[in-house]
Amino acid sequence: MQTLRRCTMLFSALLFAGACSKSEQAADTSKMAATPAPAAAPAPAVTLADFAGKWAVVATPESGKDTSVTKYTMTATADSAWMIEFPTGVKVPTTASLSGDSVLIKTGQFSSQRRKNVKVWTEGSGRLQGGKFVGETTAHYTNAGADSVLKLRIEGTKMP
């Protein structure tokens, strides 16, 4: 009986050792197969200098009954201090910052070029696409009630 128990224990130990070694080899193989390919090189980072220059910009409302465009010149520099100038001569300092491949732009409060006797401030984002500056902006009108926000699409063409 003792011999039978010893043989059974020995056989079980050998079976267990054999099973473990096969699993480890299979695990090693699967680790090698699951190793990801090297990551592609990241796209070159965008800088504010990539946006630098004078842009003729057209802002078009995304919805609503007033679909007239607003035109302005945006002067972008390699730093964060940009300037918007409307055909009326109103100049609006604008702050620019980067987020991924886009630039975030924000103005202080100024006299609206779309609504008489109303103050407005804007914030938006744009990116370079096909040689153009494209994006969207939101105008926030002060004391305008339910009609206090206007979303606009913007498209700028670089001026010579």
Architecture overview:
- There is one protein chain.
- This protein is an alpha+beta fold.
- The chain folds into 2 domains: 1-35; 48-158, Lipocalin (Beta Barrel).
- The protein is 20% helix and 43% strand.
- It is built from 1 helix and 9 strands, in the order αβββββββββ.
- It has one helix at 2-33, and strands at residues 53-61, 70-76, 81-85, 91-99, 102-107, 110-111, 119-129, 132-141, 149-158.
- An 8-stranded antiparallel barrel has the order 1-2-3-4-5-7-8-9.
- A hairpin with a 2-residue loop joins strand 7 and strand 8.
- The longest helix has 32 residues, at 2-33.
- Mean pLDDT is 83; it is low at 3-18 and 22-27.
Detail the topology: elements first, then pairings:
Layout: H1 2-33, E1 53-61, E2 70-76, E3 81-85, E4 91-99, E5 102-107, E6 110-111, E7 119-129, E8 132-141, E9 149-158
Antiparallel strand pairs: 1-2, 1-9, 2-3, 3-4, 4-5, 5-7, 6-7, 7-8, 8-9
